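ESCALATION

Customer reports they have been waiting on this structure for their group meeting. Please prioritize. Original submission:
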Amino acid sequence: MHMIKIILMLLLTCIGTVQAGDKMGTFYAYKAIDIKGVEHAMSEYKGKVVLVVNVASKCGFTPQYEGLQKLYEKYEKKGLVILGFPSNQFKEQEPGTNAEIQNFCKVNYGVTFPLFEKIDVNGENTHPLYTFLKKEATGFLGSEGIKWNFTKFLVDAKGNVLKRYGSSTKPKSIDKDIALLLDML
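Update from on-call: job pushed to the front of the queue and completed.
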């Protein structure tokens, strides 16, 4: 069974490697401001498995907050961190202020994982972290652009961006990939 896990982990790593673009440092080289206005270095998450998600409150995929929170509750003590980055770039589905977004997430989905200030994930004002993530794990047919809300990036405990999941990938579908990475900690 242990050998199967190792083989699956190697396959997951290979998928990420095939999708990888030019290197722009590491995940740990970036910083972002949380929803309360406090700057955080991604290096704070060294040694943890990280799932980075662009989120929105008025999207058909918004109920994924529930699944993300379940993953966080299940694996937080084992080393998982989920980072939510609100973006209003897709049909203006995240129009609220940072305070309104935080309140919405807490009241409607009980979100306790870290949320960050609203950012751009595409275009001229793309947050540098998202520029990096998109180059490291491209989308369908090698495209870098984020297609919609709730695109997810899985980062291993060493800061390698292993895989990108589209908006329609439900959080529970990522559970096995997260569990494999956490088993290797």
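Sent to customer with the following note: The longest strand covers residues 49-55.
Escalation resolved.
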